[in-house]
Amino acid sequence: MDDRELERRLHALEELMKILRPAVQADGGDLLLRSADARSGVVELALQGACSSCAISSVTLTQGVERILRDRLPWVTEVHGEVEETEDSFAAVGQGSWVPKEP
């Protein structure tokens, strides 16, 4: 694989992250790209903010973000993710944009 192909892959990943991050940010969290190896296909991510106190953050990573990355970027072979604790994780609770509807 030449340098041009590696560059193309990384650019595609960056563009996809521009689509994914706002969805996570809308709920008070953030999705960060820690590293990506376009040769091996390994991508490392981190969830931050309100995600550190969210009970389904691991599901967001595995069934959401990882699935999307693998579907749209066939070269991605593994996605490793972590949920980074905030200094005050309880302050992040309820900071998202979701508001329950009145009955």
| SSE-based structural type | alpha+beta
The overall pLDDT, averaged over residues, is 82
Q: What Rg do the Cα atoms give?
A: 15 Å
Q: What is the helix fraction of residues, given as a range? A: 40-55%
What is the annotated CATH architecture? Answer: 2-Layer Sandwich
Which overall shape is indicated by the principal axes computed on the Cα atoms?
Answer: elongated
CATH topology: GMP Synthetase, Chain A, domain 3
Q: Count every helix, treating DSSP H or I runs of 4 or more residues as helices.
A: 3
What's the CATH first level?
A: Alpha Beta
Task: Give the termini separation.
Answer: 57 Å
Spatial strand order of the main sheet: 1-2-3
Secondary-structure element string: HEEHEH
Tell how many strands the DSSP assignment holds. Answer: 3
Number of domains: 1
Full CATH superfamily name: Fe-S cluster assembly (FSCA)
Q: Hey, roughly how much beta strand do the residues contain?
A: 15-25%
Largest sheet: 3 strands, mixed
Unreliable parts: 87-101
